[in-house]
Known about the structure:
The longest helix has 26 residues, at 211-236. 11% of the residues are buried. Strand 7 and strand 8 (153-158) form a beta hairpin. The chain has 5 helices and 10 strands. By secondary structure, it is an alpha+beta fold.
Amino acid sequence: LALETIDLDKDPYFFKNHVGSFECRLCLTVHQNDGSYLAHTQGRKHQTNLARRAAREQKEAQKDGAGTGVGGLYAGVQVKKNVVKIGRPGYKITKTRDGLTRQVGLLFQLLYPEISPGVEPKVRFMSAYEQKVEEPDKQFQYLLVAAEPYETCGFKLQAREVDRREGRYWTWWDADAKEFWCQVMFKTERDERYSNHTETERRRGEILPTTRERTKQGERSKKIEAAASISAWCVAN
């Protein structure tokens, strides 16, 4: 799953040397395979070096922009914040199953030790046709978790309907431990069939009235016609 969510070709610190080993140019470490390198990127040393580099670059950017002298010209204009990304957060994924309802799901735990003050992670589901990283495949959907200054994490899930009832789908942000939790439970095939049937019946009901409704409408029409006939007879006489 980690290999599916992390593109090593876009990692500026990833380097494959002439003997086939993998190097981290940021931490100056050597790894025998890509799995070892990915584990290193989620470790404390790599995350600390990313935070230090981001802080240094931000400080240099502020220093370079201090003498521009454009404060008076753009006074009162809100400038879009340019956040320096410090890499992806560490995460853990646990499979869950409800023995009573036979529902299966996933529990996501993400670590944000260097999250920006006042920021809480945000979650969004994305269809295969919204993303531009892979060829669209209707069999999958994506769960995105974003929190500055970290890069957005994308997890590839089966394109099954998510049970959004209370206690089934939930998120929780532990501001003290800087940990974000998200549980996703999928509906069973039986529940999905029932939901689709109910939605079809609802849409059909919006277009075509039921037999009982048609009967009531006919009775009301007859009563209106009878009342109109009586009224017309009274006027004529």
